[in-house]
Design goal:
Layout (H helix, E strand, L loop, with lengths): L3 H5 L4 E2 L4 H5 L28 H4 L1 H14 L3 E3 L7 H4 L8 H22 L6 E6 L22 H18 L3 E7 L2 H18 L5 E5 L14 H8 L6 E9 H14 L3 E7 L13 H13 L5 E2 L7 H12 L3 H8 L13 H7 L12 E3 L2 E6 L10 E3 L8 H18 L6
Helix pairs in contact: 4-6, 4-12, 6-7, 7-8, 10-11, 11-12
């Protein structure tokens, strides 16, 4: 299977839409949430959607299938509330691992089916890691500001169990989403790191925060830039925003992330804002009209949907995003433009690149999450994109290799920096 990091260099990736919205389309009763597992459980379970991966896996499989068929590259596991902290409300904290393992297994089975049918478009599964229903930074009791109903250690332990289940079930990447408290998210990242070390494995990690209202802040009071800074200690695959807002309202905060972040940018907004009945009315057509501004402004690398979105929304988003892919742009211009992403570069450096002559190397290297790079301009044309040159790229001629080697050696001597080979 092709590496998702490599694919993200070529085109915009499509994330799936809402799981809960699709589950609501089924007429489910209490028995559906108990079947084969919890017939004798003492507490009501209807509404605990994560359980359906155990009791009605056929429904979850159908939903994943619908999103992949609509054009999604990535689906999320049905594990948003899959920690023992969240399951404690139902008295099912002992089933957290099972929920995550089975959810990942179901999603990966569907992904593998599509990948076999379309090997040129591999499908991926992201393990969904929700924020839990508790917050480590603020008190749930207005009469006692010092009170906390959870701790960093408790969150870390719960997240480790969830992540172990997801990885054992086969997920390709992890998505820590709907972050309203960065301390919770830091506990999740701490758990990710611990599990990676214990399993001697590394997967791409996405983090997605939530701006809760027009103030432009998370529930715990951080701006989008502060949220980015709080997460930047970890080598993320992407950072982004989801939930709470529709696409139009999310736009200014994505601009901040795209301007400041050294990671890929993701967004999965709601289908507008809920009406007085708590339902989402925004049509796929209206939603893509708003998302197109993300694409025109070159803000995002990964796009999908959150509350209220369906396979119809994802199909419309995928069709729109395909018009902005690097591959299509290359075909239209009749040549190899290579890959170029401004969000991985310092703006002043980008300005210098635009002044290069054909065949010239950039004067200074730049470090991204992919390592140290220099740039060579391959062809002169309006808005020509520079080409990344590093050890993973195919340098076609020995002359190019020698020129690049000499250039790197010169940079080492002049700048006295350590370039990664």
């Amino acid at each position: 299977m092709r590496n998702i990091t490599d694919i993200a260099k070529k085109r915009i990736l499509i994330l799936d839409g809402a799981m809960g919205t699709m589950i609501q389309r089924y007429t489910l009763e209490e028995a559906d949430f108990r079947k084969g597992w919890f017939e004798d459980h003492s507490s009501p379970l209807k509404g605990n959607n994560d359980l359906l991966s155990l009791t009605r896996p056929d429904i979850i499989k159908e939903i994943h299938f619908a999103y992949f068929k609509a054009g999604a590259d990535i689906v999320e596991t049905n594990t948003f509330s899959g920690t023992k902290i969240a399951q404690l409300d139902y008295g099912l904290q002992d089933y957290a691992y099972d929920i995550n393992f089975q959810s990942a297994k179901i999603a990966c089975e569907v992904a593998n089916e599509f990948t076999i049918q379309e090997p040129n478009k591999p499908r991926f599964v992201a393990g969904s890691i929700g924020p839990t229903n508790r917050t480590a930074s603020i008190s749930p009791d207005v009469n006692d500001p010092s009170f906390r109903n959870t701790s960093f250690d408790e969150l870390n332990e719960a997240y480790q169990e969830q992540i172990n289940g997801l990885i054992d079930g086969g997920v390709h990447l992890l998505l820590i989403e709907t972050v309203f408290d960065t301390l919770n998210a830091k506990a999740a990242l701490f758990a990710v790191n611990h599990v990676f070390e214990s399993k001697a494995i590394k997967l791409p990690v996405m983090v997605s925060g939530t701006i809760t209202d027009a103030s432009g802040r998370t529930l715990t009071g951080q701006t989008s830039e502060a949220f980015l800074i709080s997460m930047s200690h970890f080598p993320l695959f992407s950072i982004g925003l989801n939930c709470a807002l529709g696409a139009a309202d999310m736009h200014p905060y994505l601009k901040t992330l795209a301007k400041k972040a050294s990671f890929l940018i993701s967004a999965h907004p709601n289908a507008g804002l809920p009406n007085e009945f708590g339902e989402y009315d925004e049509t796929p057509e209206k939603m893509v009209d708003q998302i197109e501004f993300f694409l025109k402004d070159d803000l995002i690398n990964i796009i999908g949907g959150c509350c209220g979105t369906t396979p119809d929304h994802i199909k419309a988003i995928a069709e729109l995003a395909s018009k902005y892919s690097i591959d299509d742009e290359t075909k239209e211009n009749g040549g190899d433009l290579g890959w170029f992403s401004k969000d991985l570069m310092v703006n002043s450096f980008y300005e210098g690149v635009k002044k290069l002559k054909e065949g010239e190397f950039s004067k200074k290297p730049i470090q991204t999450q992919f390592g140290w790079h220099v740039i060579v301009l391959k062809k002169i044309r309006p808005l020509a994109a520079p080409k990344w040159i590093d050890k993973k790229d195919d340098i076609k001629t020995e002359l190019q290799k020698e020129k690049l080697k000499a250039h790197l050696e010169k940079l080492r001597a002049e700048a006295d920096i350590s370039l990664k080979d």
